[in-house]
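User: Hi! I have a protein structure encoded as tokens and I'd like to know what sequence might fold into it. I'm fairly new to this, so please keep things simple.
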């Protein structure tokens, strides 16, 4: 009986080793960079998600040695600390949320986060604050406004359409939060984006 339990623990440990978590991997270009690194180091993988890679096999010693430096070139970083991993997963989950279909974003945010990460929201909030020195709510608002900018610049949606898509209570609510975060109204931001000397980058 005991050997069977040990085997189960070993299998679980092996499965965990086949998932790696990567800090600052928060955009499509980051995913492309990670894919390039994995292919260069001949690391087989099953999937690449924001902040996380599922490997097809455990890393060999040479891959373990070379992967951190290869990621660092793109300002990415492997993580093995549990609380840091949770904080980063909170970030990527929030970013994913604002690119999700409208049905998902209708959920209460704390419930959405709890369902996705399988931790109590209070624990998630405390862990995030401890690691980041800020709150989940502040990051949520910041990323929501970043998504507003993206929709204005790249999809040329109206403020009314954006307010509906991102579940703001009203256009006035969106405008108030936008100005609080950026110091500008949406109209001022759109005008600035239209100027020739303005460059806005969502990911460095």
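Assistant: Happy to help. Inverse folding works backwards from shape to sequence: for each of the 204 positions I chose a residue that suits the local structure. Here it is:
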């Amino acid at each position: 009986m005991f050997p069977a339990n040990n085997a189960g623990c070993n299998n679980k440990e092996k499965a965990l080793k086949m998932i790696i978590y990567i800090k600052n991997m928060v955009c499509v270009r980051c995913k492309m960079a990670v894919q390039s690194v994995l292919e260069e180091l001949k690391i087989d993988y099953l999937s690449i998600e924001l902040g996380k890679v599922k490997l097809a096999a455990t890393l060999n010693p040479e891959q373990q040695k070379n992967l951190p430096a290869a990621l660092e070139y793109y300002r990415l970083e492997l993580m093995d600390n549990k609380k840091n991993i949770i904080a980063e997963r909170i970030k990527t989950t929030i970013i994913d949320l604002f690119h999700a279909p409208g049905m998902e974003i209708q959920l209460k945010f704390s419930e959405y986060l709890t369902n996705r990460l399988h931790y109590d929201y209070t624990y998630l909030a405390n862990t995030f604050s401890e690691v980041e020195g800020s709150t989940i709510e502040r990051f949520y608002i910041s990323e929501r406004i970043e998504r507003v900018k993206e929709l204005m610049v790249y999809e040329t949606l109206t403020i009314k359409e954006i307010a509906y898509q991102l579940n703001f209570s009203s256009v006035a609510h969106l405008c108030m939060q936008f100005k609080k975060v950026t110091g500008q109204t949406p109209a001022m931001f759109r005008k600035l984006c239209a100027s020739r000397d303005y460059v806005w980058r969502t990911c460095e």
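A useful reference point when you look it over: Confidence is low (pLDDT under 50) at residues 1-16. Feel free to ask if any position seems puzzling.
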